[in-house]
Amino acid sequence: MDPAMYMVVTSSHIYLHCRAEIGVHVSIDRSNHNIKPTRRPPTYDPSSAVPLFGILGTINLVNGPCLIGIDGVRAVGALKGTHAVFQITSTRLQPFSATTAHLTPDEATSQAHCLDLLASITSDGDFYFSHTYDLSSSVQQQALMWQTAGGSGSRIALDEMADPRFYWNRSLHKSLIAKPELRVLAVPVIMGFVHIEAVNINGKPCQYCLISRRATARAGTRFFKRGIDEQGHVANYVETEQIVSCGSLVSSHVQVRGSFPLFWSQTPSFKYTPTIAISRTRDHFHAAKRHFNDLSLRFGEVLALNLAGHKKGEWQLCERYEAIANQLKSDVNLRYLHFDFHKECSRMRWHRLSLLMTSPGLTYCRRQCSNQFSSNRRQRAQKSSDVFCIHFPHPPRFHFCNDSELS
User: Residue 400 pLDDT more than 70?
Assistant: First the structure.
């Protein structure tokens, strides 16, 4: 695969020689750290140029700004046969400053530690991007964006279209977005998972794509980040979209999951399963209401599916959660369903999922739309479709959700 640009580093400047279709090159002055577009960068020796597949952004470290370039990717596939999607496998960190001589030994150590940490975090395979498709937004969100733009969605910059909830390098793009000519280089990156595969459905060649988007709010590791905050953000919130494309028809399935929308914690200890502690002083109801109001505005009717079990700590969460869900029914278009996943499907009894799938509310919704982002398509995209809001302490190993078809 061809790189998007080549980086050339001299003692005075950092140059980004971009592909012709990008339409702009970049010059960074290493003395005053000024970033500016340039139409004619100086010639360079190809052997000294570093190929880059994109710009993750810039970040301020001990020694000043640092450019984070994407120098290693794995091609995931082409979404809808057109939009190339990449997994980031390695990054190149290039400090703006040409020297570290002015740093104290402690500052130099901190600078080196920050560079190592950044390289590790950005190269662990959890980040994905596309130069032509907004991975942070669902098919329906993008259709609505076309409506807002009056059918001229192709002129919307990717960073403008991106959903800030899943736009992980948004803050790193400030220096690029500040200059309109460089905005084309601000490619949103999501954290999560993307898989694209060719499938055959009833003899027809189709494409299956799975996109999981992890939210930036209240992200954290297991046990250390639990529950909800005052703004209604739940820990480890993930939106999963399944996109099936068959010719001109595109079916988009959206499901969300997250931690129980309560103020609770599970501090790690020597126990295999740390004790669950539910706050007795925090306002659970209003925080949960903010959470479900947001979901209702985005998706319409919400089915909250609780997959937790009957263990002592989990059962306390279930009781409190169900009580709040019942209180919210008068204010939010919400239905609550409890399915003890570990009990019902223990010992590999996956067939018992049929008990869940036949429950009221797990329905199929079809919307037929035209092939283009036409007026008909946009009007239909505005209609609400159910979403499963799944709250549980541990994720299940299956996916299911309602359908909203957009062609």
Answer: no
| Two structure tokens written together for 289 | 């209401």
3-state secondary structure of 326: helix
Closest alpha carbon to 189 in 150, 216, 210, 208: 216
CA angle 400/401/402 to nearest 5° reads 145
**Cα gap 169→6, rounded to integer Å:** 21
* Lowest-pLDDT range of 78-92, 230-244, 338-352: 338-352
Look at residue 113 and tell me whether its pLDDT is greater than 90.
yes
Mean pLDDT across 23-45: 90
* Element counts in the chain: helices (H) and strands (E): 9, 19
3-state secondary structure of 381: helix
Q: What angle do CA 9, 11, 17 make, to 5 degrees?
A: 25
Q: Is the pLDDT of residue 386 over 70?
A: no
The pLDDT-based confidence of 370 (bands split at 50, 70, 90) is very low
Reduce the DSSP state of residue 50 to 3 states and report it: strand
The number of beta carbons lying within 10 Å of the beta carbon of residue 301 is 16
pLDDT tier, 79 (very low <50, low <70, confident <90, very high otherwise): very high
d(CA 370, CA 377) in angstroms, rounded, equals 6
DSSP 212-273: EEE-STT---TTTS-SB-TTSPBTT-EEEEEEEEETTEEEEEEEEEES-SSSEE----SSSS
Sheet containing 13-18, strands listed edge to edge, beginning at the edge strand earlier in sequence: 35-38, 25-29, 13-18, 5-9, 50-52
Amino acid residing at 329: K
Q: How far is CA 321 from the centre of its chain?
A: 26
Domain residue extents for the chain: 1-191, 222-236+259-406
User: What span, in angstroms and rounded, lies between the C-alpha atoms of 107 and 109?
Assistant: 5
The DSSP bridge pattern shows strands 13-18 and 25-29 to be antiparallel
What pLDDT was estimated at residue 395? 33
